Amino acid sequence: MSTFRVRRRIEIDAGHRIMTHGSKCRNLHGHRYVIEVECEAAHLHPSGEQTDMVVDFGFLKHEMMRLIDAPCDHGFIAASADAELLALFAPQGAQDWTESILAEVRENGAALTTRTRMGTKLYVVPFQPTAECLAKHWFEVLKEPVRERSDSTARLVAVRVWETPNCMAEYAPG
Question: What's this protein's family per the entry (predicted)?
Answer without folding.
Answer: Belongs to the PTPS family. QueD subfamily.
